[in-house]
Amino acid sequence: MGLVGGSFLVRRLRGVIWAVASISLAVGYLSLTHSNPAPKEVTWEDVLTDAGKGRYQVITTEQLSKLHMENDLLLVDTRQDWEYRRGHIRGAVNFPIEPTWWSRWRKTGALKAALGPDKERSIVFY
């Protein structure tokens, strides 16, 4: 009888250890994926430097207006849904992009689908 009771306690203890480990992993994962890092003060020079590294072109509002009126231009509003609903450039599609690498990586396929197959089309993210 002592052996049977002992093995029950061992199984019970293993179950508790697995439960604690699972909860710890879940809490750790959630804290990593949902943490909001403190935003860094960004300067205009930082924007231009990052744009150059990514081979992006920075344009003025006037240039954007002219392009929008003259070309088949895809405008992508990267703000959150509620911000988009409060007002956006006519014809822009909303594709919220969160500031974490995990969120951006997770949405890669959806972004490709939203941008469409036309590789020659000009795209403006704002």
What key phrases describe this protein's structure?
three-stranded parallel beta sheet, 2 domains, elongated, Oxidized Rhodanese, domain 1, mainly alpha, 9% strand, 57% helix
If you had to describe this structure to a student in words, what would you say it looks like?
The relative contact order is 0.11. The chain has a 3-stranded parallel β-sheet with strand order 2-1-3, with helices on one face. The longest helix has 32 residues, at 2-33. It has 2 domains: 1-34; 56-125, Oxidized Rhodanese, domain 1, CATH 3.40.250. The protein is 57% helix and 9% strand. It has helices at 2-33, 44-53, 61-70, 81-86, 101-106, 108-115, and strands at residues 73-77, 93-94, 122-125. By secondary structure, it is mostly helical.
Question: How are the SSEs ordered, and which strands pair?
Answer:
Elements (H helix, E strand, L loop, with lengths): L1 H32 L10 H10 L7 H10 L2 E5 L3 H6 L6 E2 L6 H6 L1 H8 L6 E4 L1
Parallel strand pairs: 1-2, 1-3
CATH architecture of the largest domain: 3-Layer(aba) Sandwich
Question: Segments where pLDDT lies below 50 for 5+ residues?
Answer: none
Question: Helix share of residues?
Answer: 55-70%
Q: Decide which structural class fits the backbone.
A: mainly alpha
Number of helices: 6
Q: Quick one: biggest sheet?
A: 3 strands, parallel
Alpha-carbon distance between the termini? 71 Å
Shape: elongated
Question: What is the number of strand segments?
Answer: 3
Task: Domain count, please report it.
Answer: 2
Strand order of the largest sheet: 2-1-3
Topology as a string of helices (H) and strands (E):
HHHEHEHHE
CATH structural fold name of the largest domain: Oxidized Rhodanese, domain 1
- Could you tell me the radius of gyration in angstroms? 25 Å
Which band does the percent of strand residues land in?
5-15%
CATH domain class of the largest domain: Alpha Beta
